[in-house]
Model the fold of this input.
Amino acid sequence: MSSLRLTIWGCRGSVPTPGPKTVAFGGNTSCVEVGLKDGAVLVLDAGTGIIDLGLDLVDRGVRRLHLLLTHLHLDHLEGLRFFAPLWDERVTLDIWGPPSPMLGLQERIARSFSPPLFPIELRDVPARVTFRDVPREPWRIDGVSLAADLVVHPGPTVGFRLETAGSSFAYLPDHEPALVGIVERSSDWISGAALAEDVDVLFHDAQYFEDEYETRVGWGHSSVSDAVAFRRAVGARRLLLFHHEPQHSDDSLERLEAHAQSIAAPEEPKAELAREGMVIELP
Amino acid sequence: MGSRRQKHLVLILAREFASNLATPTLIADADGTLVFYNEAAEEVVGHSFAESGEIPLDEWTASFSPRDAQGRPLPPERRPARIALDERRAAHERFRITSRDGVDRDVAVTAFPLFAHADEFVGVVAIFWRC
Done:
């Protein structure tokens, strides 16, 4: 088996978008499974994609899990309440997330597990759940090196870098580096650059066409050209465009992908759209 | 992990904020290295940030011979940015400098610390203007 096996369970941004116009790329919000060589599983974000993943994990009998949350906007958290392993007392789940200057991770997540939003309190879920702020320095889980760093997005938000002896992967699903500059900046001044530097695969926010971005500056997301510029700046070897705009149909997304490929130089890797069910194996 | 050293996001945001201000503003990191000053500050100090580059804040400040109203050298412990760095509190002072262009200028400086979290000090911002 490869050292990192990435499975996309959700790559839609902002709000789930089921329906006939989103069949090809999917309508579930952010969730990526990271399978490790020894069978261990890390999960990135708890958008609605985590619901189907949870059912699959139950079928596989996986009872030790780490969930890494980039931030707590609803599209990255709303699936957690319906994550089957959470309702299994045999499961041990560590939830990692960005520290906040104000409230702890557990207190912030508990808001979505309380009336009137939800009938069951977080403290009453059967699984053994531990809440952990992501460390400021790299750390290890099940043989994988992880790093988290704050990135430009409204509210405390981190991106992640995962690394094994042979592979590296960066996950920045909600990121607006153009707000503080990408082009003609030294990389230490580019948001998220250290996380994504020279990775084999970069999942990066590319929610908008350029004209859409012009009216949404500061909302925390990137245009497709900024995603391409960011990849170029950090030297990532492969770019997956992530966090699809909910108004974008499959046809629209295919145009976005074609546009991303048209603005890259011939020698650059061609950007690809993330799609639900996509599996990427890293050696 | 990545070999490059990444500026803390708070410093990146502070730089973007400062670069859009008409108020002279500088930023130093938690180690006391001057990491940025804006175009408005360039007018006061008489040279560009591109020329100075990242250097220790004390070294940069000393190059302007800061002194009090009586012409006595202003010791580091009275320099607002140094106070903000060492004591992690806001500080304000008026003093005279000699800019790189050889012009004496009276300036007022207010500096304050930047905390990403209560226990995570990441640097200081100093704003200054001619008196």
Summary: The interface with chain B takes residues 99, 101, 136, 138, 145, 147, 149-152, 161, 163, 179-181, 187-191, 193-198 of chain A (CB under 8 Å).
